[in-house]
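note to self: dont lose this again. the chain is below, predicted strucutre after it. 392 aa total, dont forget to put it in the shared folder this time
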Amino acid sequence: MRYMTAGESHGPEEVAIIEGIPAGLTITTNDINEQLARRQHGYGRGQRQVIETDTVTIMSGVRHQVTLGSPIALNVHNDDHNHWSKIMDPNIPATVENSMRKVMRPRPGHADLVGGMKYRHQHDLRNVLERSSARETVMRVAVGAVAKKLLAALDIDVHGFVTNIGPASSDLTQLTQYKTLAELRAVTESLPTRALTAADDEAMREVIDQTKRNRDTVGGTVQVMATGVPAGLGSYVSADEKLDAKIARAMVGINAFKGVEFGGGFTNATKYGSELMDEIYWSAERGFYRGANHLGGFEGGMTTGEVIVVRGLVKPIPTLYQPMQSVDIDTHEDHRASTERSDTTAVTAAAVIAEAMVAIELAKAILDKFDTDSLSRLQEQVAAYREEIKHF
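---
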């Protein structure tokens, strides 16, 4: 499985092409639109989420709501393009009139300056901003929705939620009360910040509200969990085949993500081996299993069959309504950075995007290991493999 996205933040369309999804998977626009709506919702989002109503059009690869095995093309229209049609028109040359709203003062923490240097966009950093914008993640969530449908057909569930926003954080030991991700999802998706409890949600909303009053932005951490993943996905034989490494790369590839950890994560560095290693047990019903999950479902770059637990650190958004120090790329004079319409925080959306990226990497790993032509054959092979592993 592989995919590619294209589109600019204020361009006419966001598009994606997915190759390698087996034939026979039922997928509808509602399946994808549900995930796109989740990305748009969440406390702390900005005005663009009011302008946009993200809905997907399936252009190819699906007939009568069932995948054909051929490339799937997805399209999401940018409603906000109506206000930018002349400025972003790809079919007419530049003029004074259609070159308005230039970005000449790069924002600290954004791709503006370095992207301008790299691609020689020295006359308008909007050429960087438009593609480096997190608007592109709408298509990664769309691709992730397809991946999640594939995983669900194999009894694999994936869910992302928020563990902290600024100083307001959740006690992760509370996760033990949930027997399934469906139970956890019902709670976190009912709260505006996707927190673990109503009390956590209230504390996070207070942080966001104060940050907005300060004309500032705030970051946080999201956690993604996956259940039903069979042991043995990924490989130890080469560094680039380690599945946890692939997931880490996919997570850091999300806009504003600056760190990733699995299981106990960085706190594992403060522990001794006797406290940390997930001891091995066996039962006739389960086969081999671990007594704990400090390593987040991975050993040697391979899944262990335990719950996958991965967290991502999301830095504050670099577009501030009280802009920071910058320099005009034309005059080299000190100025305040440019401002664009933005969110106070995107952590609530980041949980959905991270969930999509983990789903994509798990789907890739499944399709690397088993037959990718037909869903029914894939289901047969995964079921047989699970039995083989159980009786090892």
